[in-house]
């Protein structure tokens, strides 16, 4: 039933906290393509605070920002050392430093500005970090570059088999260094979107399914030799749930050792509409892999041009709702948290020349989940009889008290109402609203009141029983 009315429509939500689903690991974003520049922004804002500090506050603080609880740090391939000589990586923000001075010798002062945000994520309380790579070190690749040759490496890996171990050693050297320094690195992801060709524009490396399985075996060999247990392998970081990903699922999940060493199947949710996700669910059931947990480890809306309004905000909120409720993802992570591009890709937009921040509505849309759905929360049953309105509900403990979090997304253009009494008795209640006029604006809820569901808006209902 789709809502079409000029009067407020009564919305019936049925929530059953006894029906529990996945435990949430966290909600976060990636530090790639921006932190290695923005981490050096020392300009002061109108309050006398450094711009980089303001951005960290927006991303990680739960009171003034959106409280991201996970963070992905990019271990670079070293293309920044070549600068403009990285011929096909024309955008400086897409080049990265490596920590290596020579094989086995490291300079841990490198990548200083990206490490500044890594430090801030830890300082603000992020307790789950993933270290990931887009490409192997340039000295290890077949062509000596952080991307493949258009005529040669487009459909074969740019990493020769004899260098699998050397690359694994480098990635794990970096990972173990930061673990020993107290960073909460829980996962390491050495391969990114292996099905694509990666012949320029950014660091990247293609792997065929059998090549990827062989590399992961070598990587696990090195992890086992080092007795690494606190950090798990994150894989396969495929670019979409369906289509090109299925040969990789077959190869990885069909390998007993890999299947037993993966805590989850980590996938990027690009070009994956609801139909593609339902097909993926069916495929997993047919192959009897439905017990393998999954995570959305990367997503942004693949649309040219900037959007500051509710269109991209609603799209983001609905994407998250689908992944949490249909795919049962354990974690949900955005791609670049900060963007200087003409694209719908950043939670925040910045002007590098002016060191100025612009906040689109989708930043607050993400906050409807990340600020309130914390690590350790459980998703619970919640349905709405109106198909236009999408919902997701979670329970967890905050300050010693159990609370219920219900995210309600209304992409339609009419007002709805929910009886607060439908949630049972509760001691405290607040609804947070983001629409064209509001940004996570809180409104107190009375137990005998009507909860207004605004048109083209995102709402988080927070209740303490």
Set out the fold topology:
Layout: E1 9-10, E2 13-23, E3 26-30, H1 35-38, H2 51-60, E4 70-74, H3 79-82, E5 100-102, E6 105-106, H4 112-123, E7 128-132, H5 164-180, E8 185-189, H6 209-225, E9 232-233, E10 236-238, H7 246-253, H8 256-261, E11 265-268, H9 274-286, E12 294-298, H10 310-325, E13 331-336, E14 338-339, E15 348-351, E16 356-358, H11 361-370, E17 378-384, E18 390-398, E19 401-410, E20 416-419, E21 428-434, E22 441-444, E23 450-453, E24 457-464
Parallel strand pairs: 1-20, 3-4, 3-13, 4-7, 7-8, 8-9, 10-11, 11-12, 14-15
Antiparallel strand pairs: 2-17, 5-6, 15-16, 17-18, 18-19, 19-24, 20-23, 21-22, 21-24
Beta strand %: 25-35%
- Unreliable stretches covering 5 or more consecutive residues: 1-5
How are the strands of the largest sheet arranged? 2-17-18-19-24-21-22
Q: Main β-sheet: number of strands, strand sense, barrel status?
A: 7 strands, antiparallel
Instruction: Give the rounded overall mean pLDDT.
Output: 95
| Separate helix tally | 11
Q: Give the CATH level 1 class of the largest domain.
A: Alpha Beta
Structural class: alpha/beta
How would you describe this protein?
With 465 residues, the chain is an alpha/beta fold. The protein folds into two domains: 9-18 and 382-464, Immunoglobulin-like, CATH 2.60.40; 25-375, TIM Barrel. Helices cover 25% and strands 26% of the residues. The chain has eleven helices and 24 strands. It has helices spanning 35-38, 51-60, 79-82, 112-123, 164-180, 209-225, 246-253, 256-261, 274-286, 310-325, 361-370; strands at residues 9-10, 13-23, 26-30, 70-74, 100-102, 105-106, 128-132, 185-189, 232-233, 236-238, 265-268, 294-298, 331-336, 338-339, 348-351, 356-358, 378-384, 390-398, 401-410, 416-419, 428-434, 441-444, 450-453, 457-464. The strands form six sheets. A seven-stranded antiparallel beta sheet has the order 2-17-18-19-24-21-22, with helices on one face. Strand 17 (378-384) and strand 18 (390-398) form a beta hairpin. Helix 5 packs across helix 6 (209-225), helix 6 (209-225) crosses helix 7 and helix 10 runs parallel beside helix 11 (361-370). It is globular. The model is unreliable at 1-5 (pLDDT under 50).
